[in-house]
Every structure is written in structure tokens, then in C-alpha cells.
Amino acid sequence: MKRVCVIGGNRYFGRQVVELLRDEGWAVTLVNRGSTEPPPGVRHLVADRGDVAALRAQEFDVVIDQVCYTPADAVAARQAFGGRVGRYVMTSTIEVYADQDTAEPLAETDPLRWLTEPVPAGELEYGAAKRLAEATLAADPVFPVVTVRSAHVLGGEEWTGRLRHYVEHIRDGREVLVHAEPRRSVFIHHAEIARLLAWAAGEDFTGPVNACSHGELDVFDLCERIGPARFSVGEPASPFSFDRGYAMSNARAESLGFAFSHTRDWLDSAIEEAR
After folding, report:
1. Smallest Cα–Cα separation from 210: which of 135, 128, 107?
2. Which of 31, 84, 191, 231 is the most buried (most CB within 10 A)?
3. What is the pLDDT of residue 213?
4. What integer pLDDT is reported at residue 100 of this predicted model?
5. Which segments in the chain show pLDDT lower than 70?
6. Which range marks the domain in which residue 177 is found?
7. Residue 120: what pLDDT?
8. Residue 181: inside a domain, yes or no?
9. How many beta carbons lie within 10 A of that of residue 96, not counting itself?
10. Does 20 share its domain with 57?
11. Burial readout 219-236 (b: 16 or more C-beta within 10 A, e: otherwise)
């Protein structure tokens, strides 16, 4: 039985990953600081993700790291698991492409190119921090690394409330603030990203993979599926109004054997869940 450690799989699709792996017969350990109990049949290790000593005291075959947000987090993961696990899967984000404005779907960027980025003073912006975390793991790797770059996640108990923002504004007849020329993006269903992460844990490929359902949407497409909406150009624009393109290609993951859905297959049900 393979042993998998899931760091930070407390809620939303992270908890679904834990349950999927458990149901597939993995010996699952959930690592968190004690705020959330694990599902039945899952071992619980109460520890901070930066507690290298506590993590080094464990034996795992695979690690899925849901909360590797910064280069410091990546350094801690290297120290805890270097030379000791056969596979490390980092949940990353579409925001690593925030500096690449293109209408064409982006293939995976080699994270090593981000090592040359100047590091700004003060706290890193989210996408930049994720880029440097990926680069830290990829440079002189101490375990096989996969980084799953997730598109914007919709459906289920989506705790950020971004989709609910549109449902409530349209229901109440309030104007939706948008950019002057909103651009298109890709999305993924919460159950689909959970399946992909569980799948990636059991495969043998390495490197980054983009994770997105087929089909792109802009804020007008999204609102049209919810109901008649009134728009106004203004700042701050609403959550899924983008002033740059966020198109990713999922071709690498599909070539490796993962089949993605199309956004139209699940968007209406995700909207209903947000009502």
C-alpha cells in the first residue's frame, strides 16, 4: 500500500483529494495544524507545514502539497522530504502566467526560467511567489517534482465567493463592474482538479502541467449563463473580469492520459450551487 502525505487538504478540492486517494486504497496522512479533522480512515498529523523535524520523522512515498505558497515553503519541503519520497506534487496556479499576456493558450513554462526574476522588496505578489516556489523545487531537484497549475476553480463549496458575487449582483439588479475590454480565461470544476491531483500522485511523469477544462469564458459569457446583467466599467473590477488573457493549453496533461471535461458540461450546475 502506497503512503501519501497531503499537506493542507482541509477543505474544498483538497479534502476531495484526500477522500479520493483513501478510496483508491492509499494510506493517507493529512497534515494540518489541527483546525480540521480528517475524513474517516485517514491518519492525522498535527504539524505546521514548516515543521521540518515533524515531517522528517514520517515515511511517505508521495507528497501532495496544497499550501506551498512561497520560496520559503519550497525550501522547507526540500529539507523535509529531500531524498526520502519518490514523488512530490505541488498544487500551483494559473497566476504563474500573470506576467504573460497572450490570446493564445499557453503551454507550460519551464519554472527554471523564473530563477532569473528579480525579487521585489517586501511581500511577494501571489503569482510571483508561486513562480519562485516552483523554481526553488525545480532547481537541483531532491525528489521528482510535478507542479499542477490549476485554472480558476468553480463549483461546490467555493469558499472565495467569486461566483456567488455574480449570482447575487445579477439577482439583486446591481451593476457588475468590469474592465473596459475584459479578456477571456480558463476554468476548472472542483471535482476535476481533485481527480487530476489524485491521478498525478500515481503517475510517473515530472514537470509542470496545466489543469483547465476545455473552453474559455470572459465575464460577459459567465454572466449570460446566470441571467440578464447590467455592466459598468470601473475599478476594482469584479473577480473574473480580467485585463489580460488567461488562456492555458491542457495538451500536456491530456497527452499523459488525463481527459478533461468542457466548461459547458458543468458551468450551469456550478452556478446553481452558488445561488
Report:
1. 107
2. 31
3. 98
4. 83
5. 117-122
6. 157-185+215-246+262-274
7. 61
8. yes
9. 28
10. yes
11. bebbbeebeebeeeeeee
